[in-house]
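[Meeting: bench + compute handoff]

Bench side (C.D.) handed over the final construct sequence. Compute side (W.E.) agreed to return the predicted structure before the next meeting so the bench team could plan truncations. Sequence as handed over:
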Amino acid sequence: MKNEKLTESKIWRWAFFALAALGLVIIVVLAQDAGMSGDEHFHYEQAENVYNYYKTFGKDSTAAVVTEKYNLPFYGQSVDNFAYFITKTFNIENVYGARHIINSIFGWLAMLFVGLIAYRVAGWRAAVISFILIFLSPRFLGHSFNNLKDLPLATGMVMGVYFMVCFFQEFPKIRIKTATFLALAIAFAISVRIGGLLLFAYFGLFGAILYFIRNRKVLFSKQSKQELIKMLGWGIGIAFVAFILAVLTWPFALKAPIDNMKETLGSMSQFATAIRQVFEGQMQWSDLLPGYYTPKFIFSSIPIAVILGLTSFFIMGWKEKKNYFIYSLIIFSFIFPIFWIVYQNSNVYGGWRHAMFAYPTMVVAAGLGFNLAIEWVTQKVIKKNGN
């Protein structure tokens, strides 16, 4: 029985990596036929300004100056900047085609880490299911072609959650590699958009919860104090490195890291510009949309399979007591952002692209839900045949 289980695990592992490799080829090929997004040329111009900022060692400060008519310095847009650097360095004429291919690779990375989170929790079969679910999510796949802002943020966020899962599973014996990659993931997310700061909140909140769970019966013991020092030490170190790296890649933040990040956070939390868009069969102003706009739009445009998987996850997941903590992190990372958008009645537009960073972990939960359902059916069949 043990050998059969091991063989099955190897099969699912190879299936996952084969699917991931095939997915990379498909997504890169599809991206080559993608058109420009509505504001892509503005961000391309800002990427050129960022390039000139670093090239002139800050003398050309256009990239870092916000005006009434020019708010793009608020965007870290590191993937835009990376794409510009690549096209400039290698003299690529089809700059938008190259941008879309680069963005598709980041979309694939998000999909890859969706599978890897599922693997860390439930094994390679769950990873395969989760990867298939997100790859076949039309909205997410489509934004992987030409949305160099919201899509890379989703990549940074899911990478951050993955390395948090690794960190919490390893604690208190944290590997340097895990801490390094967690800091890099957080830095990358912030360098794309200020929303990446949420990873600090996730890390702090669940770090505190894990510490309490492990030490609730011996809060004032020597062991408890040692673990508190370790958690705080690792947390502060990771946060510091992530913050510094994010600032170094973002001209506006580099000018005044604390003040300008605060200004950016205020600006990005509630967009000042309202646009007209179709919702519930009518043209409506984005700043006057009902609070349920984002969740309704999400659940009316994602695959039914994801909804079914989520349903299974919430019905069956409560039995998995050993995974309560990681489940809570996954659930919080997709429910909280959507809840906050509704609570703030935020001015959002473009469908639910501003909440796209919450979708990958939602798919992880759906994949885990299907995996739990398969396990339940398998156990029933084995029990029936055994009788």
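W.E. noted at the follow-up: Residues 27 and 274 are 33 Å apart (CA to CA). C.D. will use this when planning the next construct.
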